[in-house]
Fold this sequence. Notes:
- By secondary structure, the chain is an alpha/beta fold.
- The chain has helices at 2-11, 16-22, 62-75, 92-99, 146-156, and strands spanning 29-30, 37-38, 41-45, 48-54, 84-88, 104-109, 117-118, 131-136, 157-164, 175-181, 187-190, 205-210, 222-224, 244-245, 248-253.
- Helix content is 20%, strand content 28%.
- The chain starts with a helix and ends with a strand.
- The mean pLDDT is 95.
- The structure holds zinc ion (ZN).
Amino acid sequence: MAELLHRIKKRIRLPAPLFKLLNGGKPSFECPVCHYHGPFRDVNSFAGRRRHGECPACGTLERHRVQYLVVTDILRTLDVSKMKMLHFAPEPFFRNFFVSRFGQYETADLCMKGVDYHVDLQKLPFKDATYDFIFASHVLEHVPDDKKAIQEIRRILKPGGIAILPVPIVCEKTVEYPEANPHEAYHQRAPGLDYHEKFKPFFATVETRTSETLPEKFQPFIFEDRTIWPTKDVPLRPPMAGPRHIDVVPICRA
Ligand SMILES: [Zn+2]
């Protein structure tokens, strides 16, 4: 009976109040986006299970909360109403966030529907120094020549412009794959804690903000057992010790 209840709870996406009621024994957190208080949902992905990953009220994941907190902090110091921004692979949550703030807001992706430009990051059709602010989250790990893409992002950024370019950090040292892994949403590499080094040759400054700089009440960490790697689906991800891992937001200034 207990096992059956557990399986039902895992399958059904309960409304947040009911989820909270049934998971009273779990640790409680706060969502900085929707201000929900209570336990978060575990997330099942191709790489395994991530505990306390998703806000049950608004659906934001660890990376969304981390990026939201960092970006909100950066935007507080800028008059973005006069700025032009480009958003790659726009997630609905951040699209709404940015569009209501920036003076000019444009979107781009290789094949996603509903964007302003269908472009290859390795060869962008935009003129030099076009944008004040560029946001591309979990994009560069899909690009075969990521150095070329970083160079292109820098090229279309105005002097003093900012590019926020987070990737999923899944190991100590970045592992380049010989070919894209279809089980891993066609990742070309496993970005490591050293990934931000790739930005340094192209930008005036590269600052990184990690989960450790953010309040723990917002659950900014990745709770994932990485000692099980490599697996059939992630055959080139090396194992990583520890139950809790950091997320990283690189802030690159031209
Ligand atoms: Zn929320």
